[in-house]
Specification:
Length: 342
């Protein structure tokens, strides 16, 4: 089934998106950035279709409907006219978002091999097909990595739900004295270690494979508990510690014996212990990627939670996604705010 109502609509939408990014692309090249979004389909005309540059490749991903062979040829021609690179297509239109389509032997070898890309001069590893689902770096979080790099000099940094440690790597490159990356996935942390090594900051970075709930509660000096009638698995033991900068970027929803991550109904279950790990005059950067969560209501709930702990938000900064991730009326689903606490 065609993703577009006519053979011309997709090429026209892509050509328009590329045209709108002229200044952005020039700026990216000047700043040693070769990973970015060239087409954000939800806003730019083809819902569920994203096209990104990941280093030395173009990556097309469809999440709602598959591209036809004709559409794939048309899109590939436009992309290679822009920059002649291999084009990898990942059809993820099934309900579980897993990649459906086979590739040619040459493209399969390329897509499953480790590549390098750079963002503002920071090197990151990339693999367009692997045992997970996403290509190892979330490009819309660029603004978060930029903020952390700019505010990490001589700071201790806690990176929660670190995935492949892009935030932690940026902090270390920015001069952090200590970076603790915490994630449950050994695969993601292994990629994070490679990122640290690529940038020669492995001596600054620590990698803790743990469920976020026991890790956070220990760091905050709180008792580790679990959900009712759940047997608690083993977890790494951590000493109570506070950090100059804490980065909190949880998934929309996740369940474990230790607790439930729910960004719609219970952000506070993570935010409270995270703010307790934040030093006085320190900063906690909070992220919420759920579109239906109202930005102001979410911010107000964070402030109330801080005040319940007898502290104050002395300054806050909203971090808005860059122009390669356009949004409707400036309301991007990904909300990021940096809170400085008393």
């Amino acid at each position: 089934m065609s993703i577009s109502p006519s053979p011309q609509s997709l090429p026209q939408a892509l050509a328009s998106a590329i045209s709108k990014r002229t200044q952005f692309l020039a700026h990216a090249e000047e700043n040693d950035t070769n990973c970015y979004r060239i087409f954000h389909g939800t806003v730019e005309g083809i819902n569920g279709l994203n096209i990104d540059r990941y280093g030395e490749a173009w990556l097309i991903q469809s999440f709602h409907q598959s591209l036809t062979e004709e559409e794939l040829v048309q899109v590939s021609e436009l992309l290679t006219q822009q920059t002649p690179l291999p084009v990898i297509y990942n059809d993820r239109s099934n309900k579980n978002s897993r990649v459906l389509n086979p590739l040619s032997d040459e493209n399969e070898t390329f897509a499953t091999s480790e590549q390098k890309m750079q963002e503002n001069g920071i090197l990151f590893s990339s693999k367009l097909r692997h045992e997970g689902q996403d290509p190892l770096l979330f490009l819309d979080m660029r603004v978060g990595r930029e903020y952390v790099k700019a505010h990490s000099q001589d700071c201790s940094v806690l990176n929660l739900f670190s995935y492949t440690c892009g935030i932690g790597t940026a902090a270390a490159v920015g001069g952090a004295s200590r970076v603790v990356n915490i994630d449950f996935s050994s695969f993601a942390l292994a990629a994070g270690k490679k990122n640290a090594q690529l940038n020669h900051v492995e001596d600054v970075c620590e990698f803790v494979q743990s469920d976020a709930f026991p890790a956070l509660r220990q760091l905050a000096g709180l008792k580790v508990g679990g959900r009712r009638n759940q047997k608690l698995p083993a977890y790494p033991k951590l000493a109570a510690t506070q950090f100059d900068l804490v980065f909190l970027d949880p998934p929309r929803y996740a369940k474990s014996p230790f607790g439930i991550v729910d960004l719609i109904n219970d952000y506070q279950s993570l935010f409270k212990p995270a703010l307790l790990t934040t030093k006085a005059k320190g900063t906690i950067v909070c992220c919420n990627n759920v579109a239906k969560v109202d930005r102001q209501a979410w911010f107000d709930s964070l402030v109330r939670c801080v005040e319940k702990q007898g502290r104050q938000v002395t300054h806050h900064t909203w971090l808005d996604c860059h122009e390669d991730f356009p949004s409707f009326d400036g309301n991007h689903p990904l909300k990021i705010v940096a809170l400085t606490l008393s």
